[in-house]
Amino acid sequence: MNGPKEELRTVVERLNPQTRCLLTRMKAGDAYLPSQLQELLGQGTKARAVGSVGWLIANGLAEETGEEDSKRYVSLADKGQAFQEKGIPEGRIVKLLKEKDKLTIQELGEKLALPKEELNPILGTMKKEKVISFESGGRVALGEEVAIRKATERYGKVNNLLDRVKSETRVDLHDMPEDEEEIIKEMSRKRGKGKAIFRIVRAVEMRYKLTPRGKEAQAICGDIREGEEIGSLTPEILEKGLWRNRTFRKYDIGTRPPKWTYGKKHPYGLFLDFVRRKLVAMGFEEMRGRMVETEFWNNDALFMPQDHPAREIHDVYFVKEPKYSQELPEDLVEKVAKTHETGWKTGSTGWGYKFDKERTSRFVLRSQGTANSVRMLASQPKIPGKYFAIARCFRYDQVDATHASDFNQIEGIVLSREMNFRHLLGLLKLFALEIAGSSEVRFVPSYFPFTEPSVEIQFKHKELGWMELGGAGIFRKEVTIPLGIEVPVIAWGLGLDRMAMVALSLDDIRDLFTSDLGKVQEMKFKQNI
Length: 529
Hints:
Oligomer: single chain
Structural class: alpha+beta
Number of helices: 20
CATH superfamily of the largest domain: Bira Bifunctional Protein, Domain 2
Strand content: 15-25%
Distance between the termini: 53 Å
Largest sheet: 7 strands, mixed
CATH architecture of the largest domain: 2-Layer Sandwich
Strand order of the largest sheet: 9-12-13-17-16-15-14
Radius of gyration: 32 Å
């Protein structure tokens, strides 16, 4: 049996020349970043340097120090890309007002090609800074001279930064002057509903150092004559006899081959199939719906008033073209309109406003799966009946570990004369246990315009704590009677993506759709049905 020194020599001899070169040039006790390893090699890319140090780590010759080098880099966000060509809107507004003296908000919007919801916050900030003022007739004029001069200087700096970041692709935030750094930080945050101009990305790099074993290996490297070793045998070497008086690099036949990965269904897809089978096994029938809905099915049929704070519980995306549907059922629209205005024959007083029939035909991206439920109720479903849908929904939201701007919702309804609120709570608890795999569940009183009583269900995530799973309740008569339903209907809409986080042991909802193949391969979903 070979001793430790012979075993170490064999390890060194099996290293490729580049990795051996790195081993000989690393100093014991020093910690190196990937860029510094690349400099030691004097050739190749940073990725190749990291690959070489990876071989050293695999053989116990180097290790990560545990120290991280964190840097923040600046790049252009989508809005920054657009503004870089023409300049930021604030500077263009000042220029236009200097040329035209006064303009209406509508005229500014047309000249800048900016929608009102994006232009208004910008004008509000400029007014606060006294760069502009609002005059009678809704006209915008320039403000105080001192404020204009300071702002113009600042707008110029922002435009210069846009050009610089565009040309360099990625700029180290640490290398920027303090005033420019402040501008970057401010402009990387959201401004109202407009997107950020700059994007700050944090990059973390590890440091590497030699182990005591690696230091011993350096001494062995001196005995190996570089340039005389053959790594791979080619026809030319055989033909010309170049192999004579030279040695071949040793190969480790005990090295495990690369792990074979094969195509399979995405774990989240498996989870969705599992949920579908669970509900079908419980006697539910699946509903189908549309991602592009009208405001009628998405909101109005659910007794959500057209001009009321209750409408704001969902911040929807409007479809630019076509804007309106021509296919709404007129008789149903009439019943829903009367219910909104006077309560019709539901026993309610309604919302007491004039229903806008043009607005109800406006196209939106579906913001809630409940749109599928009201479509089903309007189609004369079986009574008693149980229905569910897995619906892709879209809402304007700040993306983080527990929120996404598009997500899957599991929506369901049960129609029966015997249904009551206790049945609903029992079903919700069953869903949390059987589908999400969470045993800790609690109910919180809530409000939705279309259910009464209403409840929010929460479950406990092992890492993130209590999380909202969704909302539920019994449909109000203002919803069911116009659709021709005379029996109680319990309904719920639950966040399927959050359920999947528990089922797949994830701490970040964004990992469900990650492009990191390694993360996807590590996801495990154990089916128990």
